[in-house]
Amino acid sequence: MFNELGSLAVRRFARAAASLTIGACLFSTVASANAATPIKVRYQEVVRSILYMPMYVALNQGYFKDEGLDVSLKTSQGTDKGMAALLSGGADIVLIGPEASVYVDNSESPVKTRMFAGLTATDGFLLMARDSGGKFDWNDLKGKKIMSFRQGSSPDVFLATALKKHGLDPKKDLKLVSNIGPSARAGAWMANQTDYAIFLEPEASNMEKAGKGRVVASIGQEVGQVDFTAFTTTDTYIAKHPEVLNAWTRAIYRAQKYVQTAPPTTLASQIQSYFPGVSDAELVKAIERYRPLHLWKTNPLITKTAMDKLQSMLIDCGLLKSDKRVAYDMLVDTSFAKRAMQ
After folding, report:
1. In a 3-state reduction of DSSP, which class is residue 175?
2. What is the pTM (predicted TM-score) of this model?
3. What is 39-122+226-341's CATH topology?
4. What would the CATH number be for the domain defined by 126-223?
5. Where are the beta strands (DSSP E) in 97-164?
6. CA spacing 20 to 30 A to 245: which of 42, 127, 205, 311?
7. Residues 249, 95, 228, 120, CA torsion sign
8. pLDDT by residue (tens digit) across 97-130?
């Protein structure tokens, strides 16, 4: 009797174990399938520029795919448009100027944003003059028209800060032309609408190649290390998708380390698809011009020192009241950068 009952129990256990094994295998298969399905992320960059090279490298080299992300890329043509897409739910992550988060925090918008990773260490715009030679002096700008960027934007604020450093009053000593849209700036310069202008690469090098001016100064070098663009998302997205932001920041940090030492020729080939019509030689020249300026961050951490200086610049430009400074931890979530760097 015992043997029959024992045998029955063994058979039942065996069947149960087999069922569990099959179930476990099915669960494992489903889990693996789910793990292999990348998470879609809608990303918008402020403009297309070699200044954002680490991002293009991460996309081209599959760093985001390695982290399980399927990233769609769109160029918003301006921080204001990028922030609008983020606030309206049209984008998950945007690369925009940090001043935008300061403005939003001081606004009545029910949606609040936060930066979680930095990409550029300072302004990548280059000041261009129309003359073909001679030593440049900042006093040459007095009484002249300078094509800047949208009023209140990072490029506009950084340019004004550089001008003030050299004793120039942006409102009295010269005229800043800030009403020309990003896509129309090159044409406006070619049409001789201003005496000076600021351009990113590869536009600056293309202008020189066409004999339409020369680069005379780096705005970023004049201002110093202050984060110029940062990956930004909403507080809601941070709460719902921390795993996406962790993966994103790991991919960016990997690219930031890579571009520090990779040969310009290699980098040019890796980002060429994002710049149709620009030759490898032109890309190499632009990368070689940017690299000594230390424009690319070596890690994704946005520091309090940088954000304090940025808000001081906004106050100095009359864009932010001194009593409206935003607390660092309300502007930046450092947890993702710190985790990626561990």
Report:
1. strand
2. 0.86
3. D-Maltodextrin-Binding Protein; domain 2 (3.40.190)
4. 3.40.190.10
5. 113-120, 126-129, 145-147
6. 311
7. positive
8. 999 999 999 999 999 999 999 999 999 999 999 9
